[in-house]
Structure formats: structure tokens, C-alpha cells
Specification:
The longest helix has 27 residues, at about 160-185. The radius of gyration is 19 Å and the shape is globular. It is α/β, with parallel strands linked by helices. Strands 6-9-8-7-10-11 form a 6-stranded mixed sheet, sandwiched between helices. The protein has 6 helices and 11 strands. It has helices spanning about 30-35, 50-55, 85-95, 130-140, 160-185, 215-230, and strands at about 5-10, 10-15, 20-25, 45, 60-65, 75, 100-105, 110-115, 120-125, 190-195, 210. Helix 3 (about 85-95) packs across helix 6. Helices cover about 35% and strands about 25% of the residues.
Length: about 230
């Protein structure tokens, strides 16, 4: 029977039914109900943080974990704390035939992940787009909660404009600098950017490779095939 693939993030679940090719997206709270409705099916995928614990006890779920026999080797000091989304995406891209690359994910957090000659070296984690806006609103008494704007400019002439400059513009400058430093320091000739907020990036950053929509589910399917071929599902 064809599996149901899932990416259970910090707040949102993305699910692919490989029998019907339907893609579902809903809150993590609704994932348990979906799992019960399809409990006769095999589930395969990964979960982030505390969401992994109850899933690992469900016999119909094959949950990827740090102890699996992964394609990549790693120099990361604490694999048990490495986000499974970062690790799984890097492994899937490596399976596509890429030996050395920088993989940038843009979700709740922004992560930078360095793979060189088949070895995961590590990277960086910084607050994502919405987290930056949310933090400034919640941790101050007067700053409003504003939303991403495609028309943000470098110079804010009021409070909202200044917030936009400090997030929408500064975040891009940060990314440009981080990508430049990683690729030059580690001699990487490929940058792959994925995640739901990558669509917000302007043309100057689009010189890099942008993963297609729902790339996470494609990556999980690649890993499923890998483990099926090796008899370790």
C-alpha cells in the first residue's frame, strides 16, 4: 500500500497521500485526527521538537530519527538536538546527487545548513520573518504588530515603516551576508533555498536555486524510496 508522507513542523502539518497524490495542510492539532482516520495506512515522515514523542509510539508511523542509517555523515556534535527537518532535507538533496551545498530553510526559523563532500558540518539558526515581527510586538510596550510588505524600503519614515525596514530589508541583508560567507568559506557552489517564506525573496536573491512548492514532501518521498531500497523501513 502506498504510504502517507508527512512533515510535522512547529505549527503546521503538511501531508501527501501517495495513493491519490492529494496534499493536505492543517494545524498540528488536527494531525492526530487525520492519523486516526487513516490508521490502516503506513505513515512515513518527520516531526519537529515535542511533536515527535507521541508519534514515535504509534505502530503505523515510521518516524525518521537521528539513529537511522542516513546517507550523509555528520560532524554535528549533538545529533539528538538537530532539527529533523534540517537533517532530512540535507540528506534528500544529497541523494539527488549533490555533494556540496548550502541549504537555507525559511519557516518559523531560518536555518543555514552546510554540506561539504557528503558531510554535514552544521550551520546557523535565526528567527524567521514572523518571529521577528512577533517578538518586537510582544517584548515592547508600544511597537505594533505589522505584517510583511513587498513595498518595504530601507528608510522608515514612521514606526511601521521602521519596523518593515528592520525586518523585511534587514533580513534580506543578513541572508545575503550569511550566504556569501558560507559559500566562500566552505567553497560551496550551490545554494538551495526552500520553505514557505522563500517566495517573499526579491530577484537579487533569486540567483540561487529555489526549491519547488512542497519540496519537503518531495524530500520525504526520496528518503522513503531510499529506506525501501535498503530494506530499513
Amino acid at each position: 500500500m502506498n504510504p502517507i508522507l508527512f512533515d510535522l513542523g512547529n505549527t503546521t502539518a503538511k501531508v501527501l497521500d501517495t495513493s491519490t497524490h492529494e496534499i493536505f495542510r492543517f494545524s498540528n492539532d488536527d494531525f492526530e485526527g487525520f492519523l486516526q482516520e487513516h490508521r490502516d495506512r503506513q505513515f512515513f515522515g518527520y516531526a519537529t521538537g515535542s511533536t515527535a514523542l507521541p508519534l514515535g509510539q504509534n505502530p503505523s508511523v515510521r518516524l525518521l530519527n537521528a539513529n537511522d542509517n542516513w546517507p550523509l555523515t555528520s560532524n554535528y556534535k549533538s545529533m539528538s538536538t538537530l532539527g529533523m527537518d534540517r537533517w532530512a532535507l540535507c540528506n534528500a538533496h544529497f541523494l539527488e546527487g549533490h555533494q556540496s551545498f548550502l541549504l537555507v530553510t525559511m519557516g518559523t526559523c531560518i536555518t543555514y545548513n552546510v554540506v561539504r563532500e557528503g558531510v554535514f558540518l552544521g550551520g546557523a539558526i535565526s528567527p524567521g520573518w514572523e518571529m521577528r515581527y512577533e517578538a518586537m510586538n510582544k517584548m515592547t510596550a508600544a511597537l505594533p504588530r505589522v505584517q510583511f510588505s513587498e513595498t518595504s524600503g530601507l528608510l522608515g519614515s514612521d514606526t511601521e515603516g521602521s519596523l518593515h525596514a528592520g525586518v523585511d530589508i534587514a533580513l534580506l541583508k543578513e541572508m545575503e551576508g550569511m550566504i556569501s560567507d558560507y559559500t566562500s568559506t566552505f567553497k560551496l557552489n550551490q545554494v538551495l533555498i526552500c520553505g514557505g517564506h522563500s517566495e517573499r525573496l526579491p530577484k537579487p536573491l533569486k540567483n540561487y536555486i529555489f526549491a519547488p512548492v512542497n519540496y519537503e514532501l518531495h524530500a520525504i518521498r526520496r528518503l522513503y524510496d531510499y529506506y525501501a531500497e535498503n530494506g530499513t523501513l
